[in-house]
Amino acid sequence: MISHSKYFAPGQQERVFLLRPQQRRTMRTRMRAASPDPDLISSHRSGANNMGPGLPTSSKVHARHHPSNLQPLQVAAHDRDAIIDESLDWSKSTLFQRMSRLRHRVNFGKLADIRIMGLEPSPELVAISMVYFVQGILGLSRLAVSFFFKDELHIEPAEVAILTGLSSLPWMIKPLYGFISDSIPLFGYRRRSYLILCGLMGSLAWLTLAYGVHDARGAVACMLLASLGTAASDVVVDSIVVERARGHPQSVSGSLQSLCWASAAIGGITSAYFSGSFVQEYGTRFVFGLTAIFPLAVSASSMLISERPVGEVTPADREQSRPLLIASSGLPGPIAKEGGADASTAAPGPSTVGARLWHQSVALWGAVRRKDILLPAVFVFLWQATPSADSAMFFYQTNVLGFSPEFLGRVRLGGSIASLAGVAIFNTWLKTVPLRRMLWWVMVVGTVLSSSQLILISGLHRQWGLSDQLFVLGDSMVLTVLGQISFMPILVLAARMCPQGMEATLFATLMSVLNCGSMTGGALGAGLTKLYGVTSEDYTNLFKLVATCVALTIAPAPFLSLLPSELDTEKAAADGEQEGGAERPLGHQDAATAAVHGQSGDTEEGGSKSV
């Protein structure tokens, strides 16, 4: 059989599987003309041409454009085999495989000249954007969760801080989801089936929270299930982005990451204002029911992901492996095995799922216990583990200051926009500052600006002619800008710590360490709230609670020495290479690349932030 590469133009090896109806009719005509069946040949008698008997006009045109020595029967054999194989495969194919073929009917030809952040539109690009957009728009439920605990379940501030921290537990084991999806295919797929499952889990969790939960235990269970679906889908879609960016220039990888971050940011901004107004107009359970719709978009987007079933071999793969196998068969034993390894099977690895997980865990532990990775990871944990009084302040703002859900939605909208401003400021003016110096000044400035909450509690701002609403709105935007600027160096530090070959797994592990620190900080804040006796009715010691949390903001400063001094040296060298036109290594990611990992996994509820 003649190889497909001799018949199709370069880059069109699988064209026979993507034919339009008109092309199929043309190919069937040529098949009938070249068929050895006399009955079929008789219907295509030769005409007045010099192209040979039985060859229709469509084949004449093809012969002029593709001059070769292929005989009509040889040409038809390819077409006939392709059509027969496709017909048989369709009758035996699963729902996933049929949907995969339908995705090719989405015509992006008219958009070929349009570029989205430098990327050509495609079904898969739409799917990736949808997943990240959903992660952003799920913020619609954040205020609803806080008001649900406060007004319907009547839970005190300290308990709210604990419960919202427990809901972020699934974000602490993100590498496990990567291990599972890589090692255990679900219904023959490692990516698409898991996205469908994650979307269904999220939708079920929010629906149950909307109609079937009446106590704190059930609410936490539903929030855990929803967080599990979001965290797992975040890992799966990150792996898809990494796979698609591999082998492409730095600009393509940066464009993919920017698109992901922008999609999540648009979703967050879209939901920010309505998260408060819907709670005020329709109640928390309506918001939970509305939120249940969005995870279904994650399930639907999986049908646009291009993924081959595990173990499936296409005719193109067989044709490409055939010459390698033939060539290796004539070589001596050891050389033949070496030459045929890529053609037949990959290097043997662990044979069972447990063995694969153990092998990957050992490799990850070997990287984590390195001093240049372990010590910065300890600093990242301590940085995030400082206590917070967010739950107590939420109760104070709603019960004492009388802030409505609609106004708090405005505050969230201003915070979302301020977060974008913080990224822009860091990426424009601060990304070249050495990390140690950057983190030191962020701690100092953050401690000073966080003291503004003490002004709000004391009422001093009223003497300056500022209303409570105006002061909180401005204070929230300023603190959000600073918080985003302080968060960016941590993401860049985590990205630069990852050694080559383990970037994705180790980055997910470091983000899990960061999430563990956030949960620890929430638990410490809850303990301090209980210690100072701050409740939904007694705010006598709220000033002392907030002052303690603000003072502890600078506590990680002595541990800056855990960061290797080589990081600043490498940063200066990388900046010099970039100015000279050299391409940066993968580990030296800019703010836009690192931000997508932080923002896309942002599941803040009651002040906790997960990445």
UniProtKB/TrEMBL annotation:
Lineage: superkingdom: Eukaryota
Bilayer topology: Multi-pass membrane protein
CDD domains named among the record's database cross-references: MFS_FBT
Disordered: region residues: 29-64, 570-611
Annotated transmembrane regions: 194-212, 218-242, 254-274, 286-305, 407-426, 438-458, 470-494, 506-529, 541-563
Compartments it resides in: Membrane
First-listed, main subcellular location of the protein, grouped into a coarse class: membrane
InterPro entries tied to this protein: BT1, FBT, MFS_trans_sf
GO cellular component terms listed in the entry, alphabetical order: membrane
Similarity comment: family membership: Belongs to the major facilitator superfamily. Folate-biopterin transporter (TC 2.A.71) family.
The protein's name: Biopterin transport-related protein BT1
The species this protein was found in: Volvox africanus
